[in-house]
Amino acid sequence: MATADFTTTILVDQTPQEAYNAINNVRGWWSENIEGSTDKLNSEFDYHYEDVHLCKIKVIELIPAQKVVWHVLDNYFKFTQDASEWKDTKIIFDITKKDSKTEVRFTHQGLTPQYECYQICFDAWTNYIQNSLRNLVTTGKGNPTPKGEGLENFNEQLLEKWDLK
C-alpha cells in the first residue's frame, strides 16, 4: 500500500557525504530563522517564519552519508484551525548512491493531504528541496528564507511556552 506522506526526491552529482553535509546546514537551504544546533544527535532547534509558523524540532537520527531524521516536537501555524498539524511528525532524508549520482529522498512522514496546511507545505517543501537544497548541494549556495524580523511578533504564550522570550 502506498503511503500518503509527502515525499520528493533529488538526484545530484555530488557524493552522499556532500549531500549529508548540506542537509545538516539547515540555515543554508531552509531558513536563516533557526535557533539551535541542527547537526548533533538529540539536539533541538526552533524554526520560525514571521508570526505565521513556529516549530520545535529534535534531531533523532544521524547516519553520515546515509540518513537524517528530525522529530517535530511542537508546532504552530497561524493559518490552520487544527493545532495538531505537524506535531509528532518526522522529517526524513534518505541518502543513497544511484550509479554515479546521489539520491536524496525527502519524506515528511505524517504530512498527508488531509492536513489543512498540506498544499502550502507541499509547495514550500517542494521548493526548498527541489531548488534550495539542490542548489546548496550542487553549488554550495542555497536559497533559504532570509533572516526576518525575529520573534517579536509571536504570541506571548508561544514565546513563553518554548522559553524564547
What is the straight-line distance between the termini? 45 Å
Order of helices and strands: EHHEEEEEEHH
Helical residue percent band? 10-25%
- Shape type: globular
- Overall domain count: 1
Mean pLDDT: 89
Strands ordered across the widest β-sheet: 1-7-6-5-4-3-2
Tally of contiguous helical segments: 4
Strand content: 25-35%
How would you characterize the overall build of this protein?
The protein is of the alpha+beta class and 165 residues long. Helix content is 25%, strand content 34%. It is built from four helices and seven strands, in the order βααββββββαα. A hairpin with a 2-residue loop joins strand 6 (90-98) and strand 7 (101-109). The model has no long low-confidence stretch (mean pLDDT 89).
Keywords:
seven-stranded antiparallel beta sheet; 25% helix; 165 residues; 7 strands; alpha+beta; Alpha-D-Glucose-1,6-Bisphosphate, Chain A, domain 4; 4 helices
Sequence-ordered SSE layout with sheet pairings:
Layout: E1 6-12, H1 16-24, H2 26-29, E2 34-36, E3 44-49, E4 53-63, E5 67-77, E6 90-98, E7 101-109, H3 118-139, H4 156-161
In short:
The protein is of the alpha+beta class and 165 residues long.
